[in-house]
Amino acid sequence: MIEISVIIPVYNAAEFLEKAVKSAAYFDEVKEIILAEDQSTDHSLEICRRLLSEIPKVKLFQHPNGENRGAGASRNLGIDHATSDFIAFLDADDYYLPNRFDAEKKLFSNPAIEGVFGAIGTEYLTEKGKQEFQSKFKEVSLSTVNYPAEGKEVFRGLLSLTPEVFGTSFHLNSLTIRKLSLDRHHIRFNESLRVHQDTELIMRLAYHCYLKTGIIDEAIAVRGIHDDNRITKIIKYTPQYNQRQLLLWKSMYNWALSNRISPEYKKRIYLIYKSFDLSLKDGLIKYGCIFLELLKNPEIAKTKYRFTYYNR
């Protein structure tokens, strides 16, 4: 049997936390549930302490002096304290389904597979959250990739370098990864990113580690949509949205340079990064056409929009 540490960053999630924890405690494979409390301003810490006393699997950690350091730092805190061979993540307002680790139990018998990921569902917890979400995004009952993949095909798919559209990301709640792989490749969340640190970590994992799709045609976890979700506050193609994307892809480009990855990958990352940079510098708020041209035909787009790719 595989042994899993589930890491839950906790910030102002008092209303949902108990359901999340109990959904993880259900599994025999889950040996510990690490609550990384991040100086909540509601009574989340009180609930954490109660769950610590009631559920033997629960462990509670806080940052030094009880500081607030963000979701990335809280997940890193959990990783550093994890004692199991495998690590899974769960947001405090989400929950696992009974099939959460069905694929992992089979696939991790192959030592070459370092990580497994699947699909998640969506549940509307408040009417306002539902309206905000549906006004900004397409109705998505299942967040998943489009076809099975493994190894470098996952990384290429996330960068839209595959002939068939794979999907731009998958949800962190669906990922299970070997702790040894995180440590071997020195992979942790980028704490300087207050948002999108999960996407950035997934991209780096897909490059450094051998990932494989698990269950992608049905949900293995559920994302809760409510009034205070960050995702419901996002309005695409606004300066704030573009600035957050710019920080994400600037971080990815710096990573690409420091790791000397292949020119094909580095070039694609640069083009995505530069499209967001241009959208802010030139006031091109709704830059979708530029973005698509950069991805589909970068040579023409570079000439048309007059920027240079430096092969370094």
Automatic annotation (TrEMBL):
Alphabetic keyword roster: Glycosyltransferase, Transferase
Keyword Transferase: yes
Native species: Chryseobacterium carnipullorum
UniProt cross-references to SUPFAM superfamilies, sorted A to Z: Nucleotide-diphospho-sugar transferases (SSF53448)
Entry annotated with the keyword Membrane: no
TM region(s), chain numbering: none
GN (gene name): hyaD_5
Designated name of the protein: Glycosyltransferase family 2 protein
Record-listed E.C. numbers: 2.4.1.212
